[in-house]
Structures are given as C-alpha cells and as structure tokens.
Amino acid sequence: MTVITTVKQGKLEGGVCQSVLGVSYICFKGIPFAAPPLGKLRFQDPEPPAPWTGVRDAWSIKVNCALQKDEYPPFEIIGDEDCLYLNVYTPALSGLRPVMVYIHGGGFLSGSGVDTFVKPDYLITKDVVLVTINYRLGFLGFLNLNDEVAPGNQGLKDQVAALKWIQENISNFGGDANNVTILGPSAGAASVHYLTLSPMAKGLFHKAICQSGASKCPWAWSESQAGYSFKLAAILGKDSRDPNEIVEFLRTVPASLITQAQSKVLTPNQTALMCLPVRPTTDSKSSNPFLPSNFEELSNDQNIPMMMGYDNMEFIMFFTDPSDEGLKKIENLLQQHVERYATTNDPDKIAQLMRDVRKHFFGDKPITKEDIPAMIKLLSDIYMICPVNDVVDDRRKRNTAPTYLYQFSYVGDEVTLTDILLKHLINFDNYKYFPKGASHVDELSYLFYIPRCKVDNPLPPAVGTTDRIMIERLTRLWTNFAKTGNPTPSLDEYITSYWKPVTQNEFTYYEIDKDLGNLPVKNDLSEIYRRNS
C-alpha cells in the first residue's frame, strides 16, 4: 500500500511497512534535503534541493549511503557521492508527534541512516516520528585547507541542512517541528554535541542525546586538519600548498579514489592512537562558519535538555589485537595514549602522570594478557568516559537546562556491532581475556533493528526475555525524553527507578543494566589527571 504526502519541493510516494514487532508504520525513503554535492558543489556548503514535478518515488527506490570504506567485513568501498538524502518513519501522517533525528556514527568516515544500516522497528512503536539522515563523510565531507575555499565541517553543515528541511516539512509527516530531539552514537554523538554549540543550528531542535561521544573526546576534535588534507592531495598526485589548486585538482579525482586514499594519510601509530584523518575543527575562515569560535565561548550559549552517556567497557570494540605483539605495541604507546587527554605539557608532570597511571592500572609489572581488562578500562576512560563526564560536569556547574548522564552496562544475547567486528579479528584463545561488559554503542542493538546484526537470527528477542525487556526499557527512556525532556516522568514495570538529572550538588549517573539506579560519578583516572594538571 502506498501513501502520498507533499513537501516544499513536490509530492512524495511512500509506503506502509510492518515492523518485526508486528506494528505498521509509514515509510518515506531517499528524500533529498540538499542538492547532490557533485561537480562544482564537491567540498562546498550544501545547496537547497531542486523541486520536481509529478510524484517522486520515496518507497521502492534503492537509497545509497555516503561514499565510504565499510568499517565491517568485507571492508569494501560502498555508497555514492550523491548521498544527501533522509528517511522519515511515522505512525501516521496526521497529528503532531515528537520528532527524533538520528545522526549516525562511524568516525566521520563511515555509517549511514539508510535502512540497510538501521531500521526503526523498535522506536517507532512509541508514537514518535523518526528521521534518519546521511551526511558527507571522509575528505568529501571534511576537507580542511584552512582557507575559505575548503574550511572544513561540510558534513556538519549537511546535518544543519537536514534539520532545516525537517523544520519546513515534518508537519506533513505527522511530526511536531517544535519538539525535535537529535540523537546519535560515537561520531554521531560528537556531531550532536557540536550542533548544540553551533550558532548555525540554533533553534532547529529542542533536546539532544549523545551516546558515547562528545566534542571533548580526543578523536572528535582537532585544532587544524589542514596537514592531512595537503597530504591527501600529494598522495593523489598534487603536491602543492595552494588551497585553490588543490580543490580544483581534487574535483577532477574520482570520489572513490579519494575515499581509498584517505586512510593513507595516517601513520600506523596515529591510527593506534585513535587519530582520524578527518575531524571537526573551528572554521572561522568560512564565510558561513559552523564553529566560529572556541568551545568556551560557544558553551555559554547552550541551554537545551541533554542526555549523555557511555558504555562501561567502551574500548572492547577497538581492542582488535590482543596478541602478545599487539599488547607490546600498546605498552610502547601508553604515554602517548595518556597524553591525548592530558591538560599539561610540563615534562615533569607528564612523567608523574605516567607513573600514577601505570601504578593504578597495572602495578609495577610488565603488561600481560591478564591486564587486558585494565587496559580496556584505561583506554575507555581516556577516549570516551572522562571526556563525556567533563562535558556533563561543565553543564552542571553552569547550571544549564537539565542534563541526564547514563552508563549502559547490560550484556545480553543480541548480536552487537562489536560482536560482528571482533569475531573476524580476534581468535577465541585471546577473546577469553576480555572483560564482560558493554562495548562502544552496544545499546544500539536495543534501540534499532540493525540488519547486519540480525543475519543469523532475524527475529526480535522473545517476549519476557531480558533482551526484550531491555528493548522496551531503552525505547521508553529515549522516547520519554524526546516527548517531555525527562526520561522517567513516571515509573512502570520496565522503568523501576527515577533518573535524576545532575545538579551543582549531585554528580550522578543512571546505571542501565538488568537493574536501574542512580550512582555517584567516581572515576579514578579523572582524579589522577586532576592531581597532575
């Protein structure tokens, strides 16, 4: 059965879908929210989409993700440079429902909002409108030559363009433009946080959810990425320091070659230290900047409710070489890992910081496989947990709008993205040393139906199982927040404990596991950093 609606650019034909939970919903796929970023528009700010005549198919068409190297096996180049499309899932076209806008993660290099990556089957049962978006990735979305011709952050401006489209059109899908929540995991979470800081995005949404990422994460920010962009051009055959020459040259290079080359700009050590070839930066050289000033200035203006959190063993996903040789590499880079989140450059303080970190996490002995849980905990803290805590701590000290902090610790039977990645990289003998815990963005398997995680078992968890209870629990918490700004406005059989927002007097997080409850934030690594700052 097909359904017709109208947007500013013309008429769209969608269809009725059936979720794996047996709930019907209306689906519109592949809606253009900006002009295709091709030819002269490559590396440019997004332009408005062109209108069309007749009825545009938004139902049976194949929708592409942005051009990328897939981060999961078989690690192929997939997608298309023509990628600025979004998808709308709604219970009905009439009414005004809360809108949730999902911004995918993937290190600004991979991921997508298309339904081969994430499907709305769980969240859509909670009477919300879900929008999933694409944005340009890699150097196609973040080329930064520290010059107006390529100032960076093009992919973040794509997200703003999608939010503007939503403001103009979502009422035609049963959505309330005055009640929009943006959410995302990993680089999507960092994007969400940047959107809360950017003057360009002000007024386009009303609440935000950051899952395992924030602007202060070492991998999510760089003072300047120009060096990587010049290196990319040299790898592809243009050794120049003239930004205009480089942009003109790169516009002649097939997009797939740019995508293939981007991993070559990093050294093996940079990759091991969670450096990314592209990252957001301030872009004051732009005539229309996304991040025109430093965080301190921008942070003074944030005043929307936020949910932020992380998984308790984040770094399991990234601990891809637990062999003796792999552990030796990590130990050799340990000081550089620790320095990634240090606030001092003083050699004496760094030396003391390293002594304190080693003693606390590993004692005075060489690092062995028995230390893998401690190493994963340390790296989880450096790259995810401490930075998110710092952002939340800053918000509570500023006494901003309510901020809700969580830790997801549940380990169930549902296949997660970490499971898919690690089973191809780690042999069973080494995997037994890993700690039991929730890894990076594991909670996504309980918020969305993720097709690549459901290949072996496409059915949802059975009613009454702890996995099905977790799906019900997370979708209620997330959609309660989208509806009201409070994840626990009331208690029920699934939500058995009120979630307290942080305050100037109480710094607590909400533990999400088989049981729920508020616990004080206490992080040993943060204390070590503070002592040596």
Automatic annotation (TrEMBL):
Gene3D superfamilies: alpha/beta hydrolase. This is Carboxylic ester hydrolase. Its EC number is 3.1.1.-. InterPro entries: AB_hydrolase_fold, CarbesteraseB, Carboxylesterase_B_AS, Carboxylesterase_B_CS, Type-B_Carboxylest/Lipase. It comes from Odynerus spinipes. Keywords: Disulfide bond, Glycoprotein, Hydrolase, Serine esterase. GO terms for molecular function: carboxylic ester hydrolase activity. It comes from the Eukaryota. It is an enzyme of class 3 (hydrolase). Residues 5-516 form the Carboxylesterase type B domain. Belongs to the type-B carboxylesterase/lipase family.
